Amino acid sequence: MKVFAICFFTILLSHSIGEARSEAAGASQRAPTSSQGESAAVILTRVRELLRKGQAETALKRLDGDWGQQLKQAQAEPAGRLAKARILESLNRQSDAVAEYSKALEKRNSFETQLRFAAGRLYAKLDKPDLARESFNGVLSADKKDVPSAIRVRTILELAKVMAKQAEAKPKIWRDVVKLLQSALKASRGHEVHAEYLYLLLRAKRAQGTSDCRLARDLYSKYPAAPEGASWGPLMPLNKVDDKKLSCSATVKDIQTRLRRLQLLGQIDRALKEIKELRTKAV
């Protein structure tokens, strides 16, 4: 059932968390099945397809009807509630979504990690930081073998974002943000959120009065197309974080890596523009 929980989380959220796909390889073959022979994974795949087609209301009705009953028979009722909560979020029925998460978490089940992660994101969106932190910490306190690495890495980032927002009013919290992200930075490598880790950790350190140019150089050279550095140009000392210049210098290798990656990502025009700017400045 735990393996299926991972599979389900992938099926339902793969449109927003692509990293989790590798965690679910082969899991659907071990998904629980109802007495009518319908795999819960199949039902939830259909839910995802309806969502992709913009038919959220239809998916919700089916989960409230026959699909919900089949999931219950397959002992996957928490999965159904998680699916319903995600659909309700897409319909901007946030209070109903919160109720589904709460109901699903009343009893221990193999979907607790996924439920707490999704609930934490919703609480963060609703500007309820204490509840968001409680949910994310619930994920992180679980046994590591029960939490897929992609979910754990993402959870740490989401928790850090909540804490960073609190730190704007309570600067001392920046220290906790640094501690949290620094301890997980290595684990985030290879995941699509690594650039976000670099940027938020850089922000947190600068808020404490220190500037880690190593982080800035990694973001500048290896992730030139990341949204976090969308406004950055080829002249690194002029780039800004929170409206303050970096005052960091890039090496020749950093610049070469940046330009090469821009080209590999199909941003050839931007790469050519940056080359021209570098030549103009005689860099």
Offer a concise description of the structure.
By secondary structure, the chain is mainly α. The protein has helices at 2-13, 40-52, 56-64, 66-73, 77-90, 94-104, 112-125, 129-140, 149-167, 173-188, 194-207, 213-222, 252-264, 268-280, and strands at residues 240-241, 244-245.
Key terms for this structure?
1% strand; mainly alpha; 283 residues; 14 helices; 63% helix; two-stranded antiparallel sheet
The stretches of 5 or more residues where confidence is low (pLDDT under 50) are 13-37
Q: What structural category do the secondary elements indicate?
A: mainly alpha
Strand order of the largest sheet: 1-2
How many beta-strand runs? 2
Estimate the mean pLDDT confidence: 87
Most strands sheet: 2 strands, antiparallel
- What is the approximate shape? elongated
* DSSP strand content: under 5%
Any overview of this molecule?
Strand 1 and strand 2 (244-245) form a beta hairpin. It is elongated and about 70 Å long. Helix 7 (112-125) runs antiparallel to helix 8 and helix 9 packs antiparallel against helix 10 (173-188). With 283 residues, the chain is mainly alpha-helical. It has 14 helices and 2 strands. The protein has helices at 2-13, 40-52, 56-64, 66-73, 77-90, 94-104, 112-125, 129-140, 149-167, 173-188, 194-207, 213-222, 252-264, 268-280, and strands at residues 240-241, 244-245. Strands 1-2 form a two-stranded antiparallel sheet.
